[in-house]
Design brief:
The chain has helices at about 15, 45-50, 60-65, 95-105, 105-115, 120-130, 155-165, 200-210, 240-245, 255-265, 285-295, 330-340, 350, 360, 370-390, 425-440, 455-475; strands spanning about 5-10, 70-75, 135-140, 145-150, 170-180, 220, 275, 305-310, 340-345, 400-405. The chain has about 475 residues and is of the alpha/beta class. The strands form two sheets. Strands 1, 2, 3, 4, 5, 6 and 7 form a seven-stranded mixed beta sheet that branches. Strands 8-9-10 form a three-stranded parallel beta sheet. α8 runs parallel beside α10.
């Protein structure tokens, strides 16, 4: 494999935050307002991560992506919801300092979010921030030349990647695909109990985004807080859960406005459809969406996408996996496969494993090789569960698993795989897992065509499945 593909990360989250109030994407990789700012974890930051689950470094800067040989980045734009910062803590400088310590997005960014009355301008500003260095070359710490280019479609991606092959000695290129996390970005969800969104304004904003030069390939309908479109799943943990209330609207289904937004997003007039990512939707909303695909859109080719998820498992293996319905049931995974969708594997230890699991405990050791091995076991379990589930239904076992790290999305990464710079190492250790599985447990696969080469399995997970998806659906 020449490059890796990550279908869900937040390379702008911290750099855009630190660009306030000017909102300028600095071309200097030494500036913390630059998307190239290289900030790998030091010993103290790793310790804070291990003890408190807080990430004080940058996981998905384009420097880390470049050093980690990531060729295609799905950059998720996310105007942070105001409810994160309007919370149970007292207001004032101490509160803001604590919130900045937890999020690392910058105090001026927090001040802006606390005053926000409409998320749509913030979405446009984040998009503009990303466009500022589009196609611009920078020299990084390894003294090589790098650049990222925003792609308009899969053909653009090929052009960018072919440039990477042809001009290896001149520039290391990254193709960037835009996605969005949270449909509150269209102008909903500001104090939804009392201040309801204007449907006309919301639908106008959907149309504006569909006409962007770099149209997003998909968007999550929900995120952490109720947005007047559909119910959200419980998602917050730890100190954030203790200070923030996300209960309003939780586990509800779609509203009429939500259905209208879905219809407008999926309208494929002029080939401008934006697909739906079901992550963060409540289970009820997800089932309602599936029903919509099976009825109104039954004759259309619309893939189900989970950009950054984990499995819940079945009775046999549920002790291995987190059982919260922010994760996904087997029937939903089958739906992804039958619609030729993608399942991005989230590299967040709070999501992919049951608390107290023995393998998780082994990842908190000191010896680096053992940490890397046991952390890769946790990811392999996800890959294996999906494969054996799909095989049991007579489906291809390895066609939907992909990398959807959620780096810089305030996750607690698997120990050893701190940033995108670690993708080559992750690939190597997953190959060990795949080889061991095919040597010792391939009998779990009843379909002979699913007993494929371990290297092909890992290539698919680390990039090939996502690339094939783009070739089919981002045209």
């Amino acid at each position: 494999m020449k490059y890796f593909v990550d279908i869900h990360s937040h390379p702008t989250m911290k750099s855009y935050g630190h660009s306030f109030p000017l909102k300028e994407n600095s071309k200097s990789p030494l500036s913390n307002s630059s998307i190239w700012y290289y900030d790998p974890p030091n010993f103290l930051e790793k310790l804070i991560d291990l003890i408190g689950g807080l990430v004080k470094y940058r996981q998905s800067s384009f420097s880390s992506m470049g050093f980690g040989n990531t060729g295609i980045v799905f950059a998720s734009l996310y105007p942070i919801e105001r409810s994160f910062f309007d919370n149970k803590l007292d207001t004032g400088n101490f509160n803001d300092m604590l919130l900045n310590f937890v999020t690392s997005v910058g105090k001026k960014r927090i001040d802006y979010i606390q005053s926000i009355t409409d998320y749509f301008p913030d979405l446009e500003n984040e998009y503009n921030y990303l466009k500022q260095l589009d196609g611009k070359t920078v020299k990084l710490a390894d003294r090589a030349q790098y650049q990222y280019t925003l792609a308009k479609n899969a053909t653009d991606v090929d052009t960018i990647l072919n440039q990477k092959i042809i001009e290896t000695k001149k520039v290391n290129a990254i193709a960037v695909i835009i996605t969005i996390e949270g449909a509150h970005v269209f102008g909903t969800g500001i104090k939804p109990q009392t201040n309801h969104a204007n449907p006309i304004y919301v639908l106008q904003n959907v149309e504006k985004v569909k006409n962007w030069v770099h149209r997003p390939v998909f968007i999550t309908m929900a995120h952490h807080f109720y947005n007047e479109l559909c119910g959200q799943a419980q998602s917050l943990t730890g100190i954030v859960k203790k200070t923030v209330d996300q209960s309003f609207g939780m586990n509800q289904g779609f509203t009429e406005l939500g259905k209208d937004v879905v219809e407008k997003l999926l309208d494929n007039s002029n080939n401008k459809r934006i697909l739906i990512d079901i992550k963060h939707m409540s289970r009820k909303s997800r089932l309602e969406y599936f029903n919509l695909l099976e009825t109104k859109y039954k004759n259309e080719d619309i893939p189900v996408i989970i950009s950054h998820g984990a499995v819940i498992g079945n009775e046999k293996d549920k002790h291995l996996f987190l059982q919260d319905d922010i994760n996904f049931f087997d029937d939903e995974i089958i739906k992804v496969a039958k619609t030729n969708g993608l399942f991005g594997l989230q590299l967040d230890e709070r999501r992919i494993v049951a608390p107290g699991d023995y393998e998780l405990k082994k990842t908190h050791g000191i010896e680096r090789r053992k940490v890397l091995f046991h952390s890769s076991v946790l990811i392999w379990r996800q890959i294996q569960h999906i494969a054996e589930l799909l095989d049991s239904k007579g489906l291809f076992a390895w066609g939907i698993q992909s990398l959807g790290s959620d780096y810089d999305g305030m996750i607690d990464p698997l120990n050893g795989y701190w940033t995108a710079e670690n993708y080559p190492t992750l690939s190597d250790y997953l190959l060990k897992q795949a080889y061991n599985y095919m040597q010792n447990n391939s009998g779990n696969l009843t379909q002979l065509h699913n007993r494929i080469d371990p290297e092909e399995i890992v290539n698919r997970v680390m990039g090939d499945n996502a690339y094939s998806f783009l070739k089919k659906y981002y045209i």
